[in-house]
Design goal:
- There is one protein chain.
- By secondary structure, the chain is mainly alpha-helical.
- Helices cover 60% and strands 4% of the residues.
- It contains 50 helices and nine strands.
- The strands form three sheets. It has a three-stranded antiparallel β-sheet. A three-stranded antiparallel β-sheet has the order 4-6-5.
- The radius of gyration is 30 Å and the shape is elongated.
- The structure holds a DNA duplex.
Length: 907
DNA sequence: GACTCCCGCCAAAGC
DNA sequence: GCTTTGGCGGGAGTC
């Protein structure tokens, strides 16, 4: 504070200023010294041209010289030149010193210019940082510790300490320095830089900064058109919603903040901001980030920036500070981006390319929940201040804690809406949870309550489970997610995909994932970008796509990459086996008894939920006890919990088996129906193939696993025993309409659930198709359009689309043919086959171009189309092809923009 | 006039 | 209670 001021240019101040402690000692001498050193540093080059030693500090003592002329000259000539030279020279510190001296001398005479000299540029943080960096080697020997004493540095650099803090904070964010104690830091140089950048990139990806950036662009784009128009509150919301703002400081395993103090203000800390800022670069494709955009993203909560421009300004200021330091590190450089509105300041990443070795992290993490935490420790460990705002508590670094936090946050969101929503369990989280029992325990109380309640039901379910009907539990979307994750077989299926999709660490994303577990349901939810970020993953256009359970899972986690894989994989049977949902579907088909089936479904869902809960809770023995409670109660002791778990497992296993059998039936039916893709594993539900599920997702589009499963196979009610495929299909078609409220195979999606997921109803459009009437009813949340469409279809024809699907699949009708159950659906060319893809793609294009989703949510076409997207390439390829605009990462947003606006309806 | 960003007040955190 | 940290925003320098 004071000291700083003193030291700085205003030497007078220094003297006057109450210099704190350190100054006191050194002050006088230092200043002299400092001034020299400063000069050297600042203008190492001072020698020739730049002479202008700015010895301001000195000046105070020195009398004015009449050399005002010199001043003039210097001031005129210098700034830039000096800075350049300085920079060059900075590198050559040694020589600089001497030069500086010379300069000083010269200046001493001409000192006058003093003031003029120390042009702002010379005082710039960037320059200061250069000096600072010049003091230490980029790659110090690990053996030796380069300690940094802030006071000394400040003095030497003749800068306020405050300024040093700015630099150090940014360096700290890159782990180039770490704080040892008060006033003490250790210089690490660039040893950890690559790791840090990798970690940051991961985190950035997890946080979907890319999408956020896109969102911002879209937003801007929109603004241009409708300047004042409703400034998409939605978008704003989305921003605000993003947890990113909350993002904690990313730490490397070995490097952590030691001072709690550091944490206290973390949330707003320059460190965190710096990391976020860097993330933006690392994540964004062009690696060019506009200051404005970055500020908006970083503001996060403040989304309402509009409201609070002062904050925005402040953020910008800070970003400049950070940018200056990063520039000094030669990680970024300033550029200008010309936009419609004009030229905007931006920064370009010129640092090292950061290639995520994700392979490990993601893959491992994705596939194996448990490993995730461990394998990826870096990632998650990285996120240090889990609870930045919370302050001190924050520091927990345990991955488990981190995950917990994330899960909790997710839960919060989700929970808000619906108690019933099983959704709260984010897939990712689930995976995580499964991986980490501990975290699971932290599931929000609500969830616990639900679980408990479910547990009770679970008892019943268990009893039922013995019966074939029990199989349902698998199907229950809600339950599904959890159970899979935890466990046993499920993990294999889902976990790989889902998790893969969403690395566990990606807490944010995880929540979205939830649904996948639901397995049975084949659908994927695409989120709008705006919303997306709020959720875990964000996709510019969200759409629900029907996915095979397996697919779903895969999708969920997904990052686009994963998705691709997933989609491709989906074709494979992989997923099927696990999905409980499949079982459901199977069951659904077979069950001729709509009502009963619906009821079953409900029960199943409950059971599933229970299972999920249980799995989660396994980690928590206690929770498990409660959940299992009565039925299992006998043993509530931890030891008992193990038993409980066993039971549960066995139970699950049974249910899975049943579900598998059901799946087999279904699969067989599907296979018959399938066109080219004949499900290889009949056992496994190849719902995917059957279902147009295969879709290429545009690169921009990311899948969000929706928390809720929507049963495609509405048809499936039947008994496991199942009917012939055709029969089943027929039944299904018939049944659906018949289904009354209680959705038999359908997983009830409640608005709350959706909310929980953060998926705006309208987002769900695609679901419409998928949704069975019952489901619709169940999920009022769905966007109006969706609902409308669904409802319409549902009532009269629960789901014409479904019928078409089933019929087509079954082979009753050609792929291209549509059964006009619903006017809406009629359009849809539902071809399960890839060829359809083209159509679908076209349709998609249509959709995308036209902001169908939000606005036209009802339109079945889009939804269906989305469903049918060809598996073709992985998301990117196909998607890109599919969506013209989408291909461009940045530009993508535009096409969707309208959608957003449309989205308004959602609320 | 907009962009940059220095400067230092002042409060929170730490010792 | 003093010092250290660092958020914050006024306002000056630059373009």
């Amino acid at each position: 504070m004071q000291e700083a001021g003193g030291e700085m240019g205003t030497g007078n101040k220094e003297n006057c200023s109450p210099e704190p402690h350190r100054n006191v000692l050194k002050t006088p001498l230092k200043q002299a010294a400092t001034s020299a050193s400063v000069l050297t540093e600042i203008q190492p080059d001072c020698h020739p041209l730049t002479t202008p030693p700015k010895p301001k500090e000195i000046l105070p003592a020195d009398p004015w010289t009449p050399t005002s002329n010199l001043k003039m000259l210097i001031s005129a000539a210098s700034p830039e030149i000096r800075s350049r030279e300085q920079r060059k020279e900075l590198s050559n510190n040694t020589s600089e010193v001497l030069q500086a001296k010379h300069c000083l001398q010269e200046h001493l005479w001409g000192d006058e210019y003093e003031k003029s000299q120390p042009s702002r540029k010379e005082k710039s943080l960037g320059l200061l940082c250069h000096k600072f960096l010049a003091r230490y080697p980029d790659y110090p020997s690990t053996a030796e510790h380069n300690f940094i004493c802030l006071d000394e540095v400040a003095e030497e650099l003749s800068v306020e300490r405050r300024r040093i803090y700015d630099i150090v904070n940014v360096l700290e964010s890159l782990h180039m320095v770490s704080r040892l104690a008060r006033n003490r830091y250790v210089w690490h140089g660039r040893h950890h830089l690559s790791k840090t950048l990798q970690a940051l990139k991961k985190v950035g990806e997890e946080n979907k900064y890319t999408q956020q950036l896109q969102m911002i662009k879209k937003r801007e784009y929109e603004h241009e058109f409708d300047l004042d128009g409703e400034r998409n509150e939605e978008t704003g919301r989305s921003f605000g919603s993003n947890e990113h703002s909350e993002m904690s400081f990313v730490e490397l395993p070995g490097m952590e903040f030691r001072a709690a103090s550091v944490n206290s203000r973390k949330d707003k800390s320059l460190r965190v901001m710096s990391q976020k800022f860097v993330m933006l670069f690392l994540v964004s494709t062009p690696q060019i980030v506009s200051l404005e955009g970055a500020a908006k993203i970083l503001i996060g909560e403040d989304q309402l920036e509009d409201l609070d421009k002062s904050k925005f300004k402040t953020k910008i200021r800070r970003l400049y500070d950070i940018a200056n330091v990063l520039s000094s590190l030669q990680l970024i450089k300033k550029v200008h981006v010309t936009e419609e509105r004009g030229r905007k300041p931006a920064f370009k990443w010129i640092g090292p390319e950061v290639c995520l070795q994700d392979t490990e992290l993601e893959t491992t993490s994705t596939t194996c929940p448990p490993p995730i935490s461990e394998s990826i420790p870096s990632k998650e460990q990285c996120s240090k201040n889990l609870f930045p705002s919370r302050g001190k508590q924050s520091f927990t670094r345990h991955p488990s804690l981190i995950k917990l936090v994330k899960s909790i946050e997710n839960d919060r969101r989700k929970i808000q809406s619906a108690p019933t929503s099983p959704v709260k369990i984010s897939a990712s989280t689930d995976g995580n949870l499964s991986a980490f029992p501990g975290p699971i325990a932290q599931v929000p109380t609500i969830a616990k309550h639900q679980l408990e309640g479910q547990s009770k039901k679970g008892k019943e379910m268990k009893t039922k489970l013995s019966a074939p009907a029990l199989d349902c539990n698998v199907s229950s979307p809600e339950a599904v997610p959890k159970p899979k994750a935890p466990g046993a077989a499920a993990p294999s299926q889902q976990t790989p995909l889902t998790q893969a999709g969403c690395p566990p660490s990606q807490g944010s994303a995880s929540p979205l994932v939830l649904p996948h577990t639901h397995s049975g349901v084949s659908y994927a939810i695409y989120l709008h970008p705006s919303q997306a970020h709020t959720v875990t993953t964000y996709s510019p256009s969200f759409m629900l796509q029907p996915l095979p359970c397996a697919n779903v899972t895969g999708i969920e986690s997904i990052k686009s990459k994963v998705l691709n894989q997933v989609t491709t994989e989906e074709g494979d049977n992989q997923m099927v086996t696990d999905d409980p949902t499949k079982a459901l579907t199977a069951e659904e088909r077979p069950t001729l008894k709509p009502e009963t089936s619906s009821q079953r479904c409900l029960k199943r869902s409950q059971a599933l939920q229970e299972n999920n809960v249980i799995k989660r809770r396994r980690s928590d023995e206690e929770s498990l006890d409660t959940a299992l409670g009565e039925s299992i109660k006998k043993k509530r002791s931890p030891s008992n919990s193990s038993e409980m778990n066993h039971k549960m497992d066995s139970f699950k296993g049974e249910t899975q088996n049943k579900t598998e059998t059901l799946d087999h039936n279904v699969a067989s039916c599907n296979n018959q129906c399938k066109r080219e893709d004949i499900p290889r594993d009949e056992d496994k539900i190849q719902t995917k193939p059957d279902i147009p599920v295969a879709f290429a997702i545009p690169a921009h589009e990311t899948f969000f696993p929706s928390g809720y499963l929507i049963p495609f196979t509405q048809c499936t009610h039947g008994n496991k025993a199942g009917f012939s495929n055709q029969e089943k299909a027929g039944l299904c078609s018939l049944q659906q309409p018949t289904y009354s409220p209680p959705i038999a195979g359908v997983i009830p999606v409640t608005a709350s659930d959706l909310k929980a997921v953060n998926i705006p109803a309208f987002h769900i459009t695609p679901l419409n198709i998928m949704l069975s009437p019952t489901s619709v009813a169940a999920a009022p949340v769905l966007s109006n359009s969706c609902l409308n469409s669904v409802n319409t279809s549902s009532t009269p024809n629960p789901s014409s689309s479904v019928l078409n699907f089933t019929l087509q699949h079954i082979g009753l009708i050609p792929a291209g043919v549509h059964v006009p159950a619903n006017p809406v659906l009629q359009h849809m060319p539902v071809s399960s086959q890839p060829e359809n893809v083209s159509d679908s793609s076209a349709n998609r294009n249509m959709q995308e171009e036209a902001p169908c989703v939000p606005k036209e949510p009802q339109e079945p076409q889009t939804a269906t189309e989305s469903f049918f997207r060809t598996p073709g390439g992985p998301n990117t390829g196909s998607s890109s092809s599919a969506k013209p605009g989408a291909t461009e990462t940045i530009s993508q947003g535009t096409p969707y923009i309208p959608q957003r606006k449309l989205e308004v309806s959602e609320d």
